[in-house]
Amino acid sequence: MTSLEIENVYAAYDKADVLEGVTLTVAPGRITCLLGSNGSGKTTLIRAILGLTPPRAGTIRFGGATLSGLPTHKVIAAGIACIPEGRKVFTKLTVEENLRLGAYQEASAAAVAERLGRAYEIFPQLAERRAQLAGTMSGGEQAMVSIGRGLMSAPKLLLIDEPSLGLSPRLVKENFSIIRRINEQGITVFLVEQNVHQTLAIAHYGYVLSQGRVVASGSAEALARDAAVQRAYFG
User: Fold this and answer.
1) Helix (H) or strand (E) holding 45
2) CB 143 within 8 A of CB 175
3) On the CB side of 148, how many CA atoms lie within 13 Å of its CA?
4) From CA 126, how far away is CA 119, in angstroms rounded?
5) Domain count, the chain
6) Taking 80 as the threshold, does the pLDDT of residue 234 lie above it?
C-alpha cells in the first residue's frame, strides 16, 4: 500500500512563508488528520501536495515517488484525489455529469460505469437524482456529489479539505460516517479539518498545525486526551 511522506516542506505566497518545515506521514490504509484553526496553513499544504502551490523547499513523496515539481494532472494520475473545501460542484451540470468528470483520465467505459455504480451504492440519493442539476441541490447533497466525484478516479489516497464547512451538525455526522466507510473499503484518507471532536472520533493518527508548523502529533486518542492541545488550539 502507498504512503504519503512530507518532509521539511516550506511553501510561500509572494515570498512570505505559510508552511515552515512541515514534516508528516500519511500511513497507508488509515485516516490521518491535520487539525488547525483558520490561517494555520492547512489548505496551503493540500495545494502543495497537488502541485497548485509548489513548495519552495522540502520533498513530497507518494509511494516512494517524488511529487514535488509535478503538474497537478500527474499528481492525480499517481492516485491522489481531492475533495475541495466548500464542495465546488459544477452547478450547471447534472449529478451524473459531475461524477463522470472525476473519471476523466479513465479511458475504459466499463470501468467508469463500475465506479458510477459504486458511487451510487454509497450515495443512493444521488442515484435517484442523477439527472438533476447539481446547483439546485442542498449543501449536504452537493457534499455527496463532491465526495462521489473524488471517488470516481479510484484513488489510492483521498485528500478531504474541511468536509464539515457550512453543514448542519446532522449532515456533518453523516459525512464523517461516510468517510469512515470509504476508509474501510481500503482507501487511505488525509482529512484536513477544524472540527476536532468529529475528526478525532474517526481518525487513527493526527497532526496539529499552527502558524505553518506542526506543533503536536500522535494517535487520535492521545490528541483527544491532550489538555494542552485542546486548550491552545481548540478552546
Assistant:
1) helix 42-50
2) yes
3) 31
4) 8
5) 1
6) no
